[in-house]
# Entry
Amino acid sequence: MRPSILSVPGAVFAALCATLLSGPGAAGQTAAKQKAPALTFPPKLPDDKAVLSAAADEFLKPPPTLREGVAVAKTAPAVDFLYFPGQDYEGRPWSNWGDSVAAGGKYYASIGDHLAVGGKTDRTGTGLVFEYDPDKKSFRQLADVAKLLNLPKDHYVPGKIHSRLDMGGDGWLYFATHRGSTTVTADKNHYEGDWVIRCDPKSGKSEVVVRGPVPKHCIPTSVLDPDRLIFYGGTAPGTDAKDAGVQFFAYDVKNKKLLYSGPDGPARYLIFARSTGRVYYVPGQSEAAGPLVRFDPAKGGAPEKTSAVLGVRAATEETPQGVVYTAARGPAGGGSVLYAFDTKTEKVEELGQAGVGVSEYITSIDADPTGRYLYYVPGAHGGGERDGAAVVQFDTKTRRRKVIAFLHPYLKDKTGATLVGTYSTAVDPKGDKVYVTWNVNRGGKAWDCCALTVVHVPASERP
# Structure
């Protein structure tokens, strides 16, 4: 039985009440009257340092919201903290929305600026893609969407990369673009649809794969089949789109050919089974559990219903055991839930609650190379700091939730940065590092910039 609000541990409930009461109440009003400090761009660490590295016992100090039964690591990890480059002006805001990937000893992530209104400002929003080298502790910019597209001032320019970054078998990174403001995807802004783009980490070259595979639709959801080089997407209709609702499409990026496009697509995430080439998703807007459908490129045609029911707001890659793990919002009154999906049998197993405190929303989940450990960060859309910006490890063998690091408030005290949430995490192929791209609040109303943490997981915490 999943816990209701009445069954939440007392400490958690007290902390939640304190958070709620600090909003529009007297204390909240007093805080609101205090003038927020001026934000400077680009964001910088104290003393203009490029990176802050620390291994502090404070990373193991739990907040009062920690639930009973959730373990805490015994050995503190080493953590690197850096601001992403490219945030040279005040965005609306700078933020991350698309999932990231670790490959070949590097980490690849995207950030963006919501502006995306052609002709109405002196700047247009854009998406930036970076490579991070953990050995050198430095970034390299790989793609700037606005510069690549080079559109006239009165044309729509996407303000987000909301899709995944995926590494193809050809060595290129693939992703798609998405609108920032919901009002700009209109004929008056010359909107024809969003782009699938790829960039080559070796040469630094970027190029358009296709524009508008579904005409006049954005592409907030994607996954790449790296072997067959098929780009799968879920869309959101633009203002003047002919086809309403979320569409699903499959695009052959090697042969520049649309394989399928149709209604009832995935709003947020897809499961990809690399062993079979099949993709799965829950149709429609809901982020809760629902009937799963399957698209098989070898068979073609419209997606088919399966007997499986689960939630897919985030999903891992397929593990060596042939399992994909997912996270999703639970039924009304319940928290986030973890599922295991067997790609051979298409059987589903519910693994239990994912949350470790009062924050539940999880939008990125990753498996380590052994397939035993899962990593994720609750509180994607903000509020993760209430639980200490917890980086969670889930042991699929023991089904134990363990926090390997509470990054807040230690990093705030050292840098002034409050880590409020993420849509972008990845585990190094060696299993020893967890990368998290954070939305950061430096004292404003919400978040204003993006930063990276690299959590070096001690070997003793992943036996």
Residues 1-22+40-83+355-463 form one domain.
